[in-house]
Amino acid sequence: MNLKEEELAGKHLVAVSLDADFQGKHYEVSIPIERALDPRNEIILAYEQNGTDIETMHGYPVRLICPGYIAVRSAKWVSKLIINDEEADSAP
To answer: Does pLDDT of 91 surpass 60?
Structure first.
């Protein structure tokens, strides 16, 4: 699906983690899509650290890195990304 820039205005990038709570609900965090797409913010999906696969404790297979946000926004164990009208409801 190709979305135009004007269709993204006001939306949120939601990262869904493989990590789940005791009821099985997967942890989700979100940031405004404008921040995610702005190259000055250096938002990245990391799968390697220093040339090797990122370690499990640091988020293997993929970790969302969000400089400028509290660390909890840098979601570990990312399984999928969603563009949504609303913020993630499990975000602090």
So the answer is: no
